[in-house]
Amino acid sequence: MEACWLCQPDLAPLFFFDLAPPAELALEGAAALAAGGWCALNFWRCRHAHCLVTGAGWLGLSQLAFVEAGLEHSVIGGYERGVFVVVLVIGCVFEAAWQITRGTNAMT
Prior knowledge:
Layout: H1 12-15, H2 21-46, H3 49-71, H4 80-102
Helix pairs in contact: 2-3, 3-4
């Protein structure tokens, strides 16, 4: 039995498919909107430091991706997924720094 079920050739098309650029950008915009909205609401609820950065970053990325979908091309060279991950890393580093300096991960 193989450890990675995503490596199965018959399942690969379900996870690695090509969309037309506007549809792909709209899908990435929807994902960033969902993640950013969740973090923004979560920041309002529990004040975790990373949610301030990730919420704002992903909501901004979603706006960019929706504009790009309207333009039918990426203005950042197709790196929307990479930007999503970079925002996550920056948010985690920000929260770690906040925790170290303030002794809590909540922004109160």
